Amino acid sequence: MKLGASGPAVKTLQQALANAGFSPGAADGQFGPKTAAAVKAFQSAKGLVADGIVGPKTWAKLTAAPSGSGPTLKQGHSGAPVSALQNRLNQLGFNAGAADGQFGPKTTAAVKAFQSAKGLVADGVVGPKTWSKLGITVSGTPTTPPSTGGVRGNSALANNARSVALGMGGYSSQGRCATGVSRAIERTYGIKVWGDGNDIDNNLPRDKFKQVNLSLAEALKIPGLVLTWEKTSTRLGSIYGHTAITSGDGRSSYSDFVESNTLGAGGRSGFKVFMPI
Fold this sequence. Notes:
The protein has about 280 residues and is an alpha+beta fold. The protein is about 40% helix and about 10% strand. It has three domains: about 55 residues, PGBD-like superfamily/PGBD (Muramoyl-pentapeptide Carboxypeptidase, domain 1, Orthogonal Bundle), CATH 1.10.101; about 80 residues, Muramoyl-pentapeptide Carboxypeptidase, domain 1, CATH 1.10.101; about 120 residues, Alpha-Beta Complex (endopeptidase fold (from Nostoc punctiforme)), CATH 3.90.1720.10. Strands 1-6-2-3-4-5 form a six-stranded antiparallel sheet. A hairpin with a 6-residue loop joins strand 3 and strand 4. Helix 7 crosses helix 8. The longest helix is centred in the middle third of the chain and has 14 residues. The model has no long low-confidence stretch (mean pLDDT about 90).
């Protein structure tokens, strides 16, 4: 079958494509452009010539039991294999968010939903059984989080902090760093934390945050850590200090704005790091 065909066999084809996660639009028995695009996407994913023509090889792949393979993935991993996973989950209707190659909480939730729907253990870890149900083969080695001596962050806190920062100052400081950090903490944990940049650390609840010994460079590699400084080089900063939440990209942080190069910011002293527990 190919573009222009019609009838019950085309409807069967469309249903098989939809079941495989390649939507051809309505199963109306008309082999139109949407069906042709779905066929080509399916053929490409299965390593076939993507010509949009459904012959014996394409039918064999469509009617075979789902199979696939890939590296073991879990939250914290990043790279091309994660992007492929996210694209496939989205294709199948399990919202993994943007295919940005970052295995964060949203991707974890999508994986668990998929696993549950397929009768697998919903642990959020993509291993051989999950890859088989996903029906795609992915190669490559994911990037693993850096070793930080057991210090861990909170991606949800980092994501909320980014949202708050963009909603307040964008990429320009408003002089309200503690407000931005407090709002992000409240969105994540439902608790209010008061204080200026240099004393918010004293008000962080100790059942939620623990001070850890990390350099700024190490801390910036982990998403969702709270940073505080006693003083900065600005007039207000010399009085109220500064606080921010790490993005995890090794450079930037969030408060009342997105600071693109926290690592390069000079004139700051009295540095502390707090990790969520």
